[in-house]
Amino acid sequence: MPEGHTVHRLARAFGELFTGETLAVSSPQGRFAAGAAVLDGHVLVASEAWGKQLFLGFADPTLLGQGTAGRPDDVRWLRVHLGLYGAWTFTGDGSTAVVHAIGAPRRRIGERETVPAGPGAPEPDDAWSPPPPRGAVRVRLVGTHAVADLTGPTACEVVTGEEKRAVEDRLGPDPIRDAAPGEGDPREEFVAAVRRSRSAVGLLLMNQDVVAGVGNIYRAESLFRARLDPMRPGRDVPAEDLRALWDDLVVLLRDGTRTGAIVTTRPEDRDGAAPTADVLDALPGRRRVRQNTDDAPDAVPADEAFYVYHRDGLPCRVCGTPVLLKELAGRNLYWCGVCQA
Length: 341
Ligand SMILES: [Zn+2]
Fold this sequence. Notes:
- By secondary structure, the protein is an alpha+beta fold.
- It is built from 10 helices and 12 strands.
- The chain is globular, with a radius of gyration of 21 Å.
């Protein structure tokens, strides 16, 4: 499932690609036909993320003409949660602005970002027209230079500003967002939410009401970096440790937003030696974690990017004992039983 940094990157891509444009909105698959009809022909005026929730704000162009756009109550929001299987696929005309926004003429952003192999950016073409939708496209947004197709989301609906605020009020603080004026201190909200629960801190980090945007990778990696036992009850974790954990999440998630890849290892903890094929074959159920920077020559290789995530059975980078794995609330939890005792 995409973690918060991916959703913030999506929000930025939508902002760069479509802000101020009148968009053709449709539902090629048909399941979102009524919602698409509400938004069709409206102008994109905002693109925001809160944790794993994406909000695209649309204004009626006739209201824009009267100068009343921007009034929050006039904006209709497309709320999307990708869930486990959702993805956005962007295709553009190859113009510089499009390539800057999505990093390629075509890119798929979901569980992981992909840039299809093939010829480089085509020359911008005055006669560009969007390619036909592939697969079951729930929503298609078409602008002047690019098209965005949404497939397989967990949530996709049109909401009012009030309904959007109700969703946000239920969410915990997001380490990537800057707190708006009048909002509380997100770090103290996080600390208080963890400390009023007797649930394991490893469960609380995955609870979007406690902290928004952390998924399975950031959960495992931030707990390792903090040397915190994932099974420790939240109320027993000292507030100082939780403040440090929050500060680390801010650094890690914002770094992921900037680069598009999750890298949590410190340079001195990378061994430069990827596990051999025999070692990997002997470990059941592992699969390689791919990141969208895998082909970049100066990127940290995926095998070196994590301390514990998907490293069960491999030696801990710090103490050398095998990394542990167990299922917790239906998701795999990875940790070091020595470093995080
Ligand atoms: Zn260890």
